Amino acid sequence: MTMNSEGRYQMANGYHSWLSIFQMFDTNYDGYIATHDLRRFVRNSAASFGLSREEADALLRNIDRNGDHLLDFAEFCTLMSRAKKLRMRHVLFRAAQMVVPRSSRTVPFNYLQQYNCFPPPFFMICISILEIAIYVYYVAQLRSGIELYGPVPQKSLLIFNPHRTNEVWRYFTYMFIHIGITHLIFNVLTQIILGIPLELVHKFWRIALVYLSGVLAGSLLDYAIDPRTYLAGASGGVYALLAAHIAELLINWSEMEFAFSRALALAILIASDVSVVIYHRYYLNATDKVSQVSHLAGFVAGVLMGTVVLRNFRKKNWERVIWWIAFAITCLSFSTLIILNVMQHI
Predict the structure, then answer these.
(1) Has domain 123-344 been given CATH number 1.20.1540.10?
(2) Residue among 219, 294, 295, 333 flagged as catalytic
(3) Is 235 a residue of the active site?
(4) Which of 153, 199, 229, 282 could form a disulfide with 138 if both were Cys (CB 3.0 to 4.6 A apart)?
(5) Among 263, 252, 274, which residue's Cα sits nearest to residue 201?
(6) What homologous superfamily is domain 12-99 in, according to CATH?
(7) What is the pTM of this model?
(8) Cα 188 from chain centre
(9) Which pLDDT tens digit goes with each residue over 293-323?
């Protein structure tokens, strides 16, 4: 396959260049390029790909790492970014491969190829920075030093205080209070690892809705069931992110890369956090207790809200039915929890 010099220049420098290149060499329009064909195309005309000879050699060295002899657009983007030494772009593509099934990658990866990292995936980063800053503030204010399971700022305006539920901001702001450095580090690292790949693909406002729905569901359910418990920590939001990953992984199991390994990693994360919660709840003194109810509520909220708001790049008919069911259950669940919370004051 050949192109004139003008066409080659447009392909190499155009805004949609990588998708255009991929589609040109996807001769049977099935969304894949055979690796042996790609080797031949690159050797014959590296300039058609916008590659120097050195970059072409780098691309060919890394081709077909999973051994299936086929490249989809996502793998093509990853190879191109590595060959052209676009390190940040390469990280973006690798992160996106974690959360997008193979059959749905063309649209998000075409977007990421154009993505200039401005604005960056700021929601999870900003939330994490705020959580760290507030923990440091209370360490300094209470003069307790950094502890594994403290300090506990019970008089904070941010913590969920069951005796001051009229201050409605507390239903959200308790996520900024962490009981000890281990609690903080676990939540911050987990939400960054899970949240940023989702935010890159699905945009910040969708991830904000998933995360905050988990936080709100946690405080609403906890107060409805156990109205004497103080609540602290972002675990409701973290569990919502976990649930969003798990739901997406299960729905697209056959198409997700390293599905079993990812499922195992998520299971280990959940087991670790549950262990910490149980330890806090039953083995530390009363002021250090946190609620496992909020974790369960956050998880359920993540499944429901993730189904409703996260982008579905290739929607099937049965998925439309699931969307409406999830939307109805979400509305009903939050309405019920709000009513139960109001009834605590009657």
Answers:
(1) yes
(2) 295
(3) yes
(4) 153
(5) 252
(6) EF-hand (1.10.238.10)
(7) 0.69
(8) 13
(9) 888 899 999 999 988 888 765 667 777 888 8
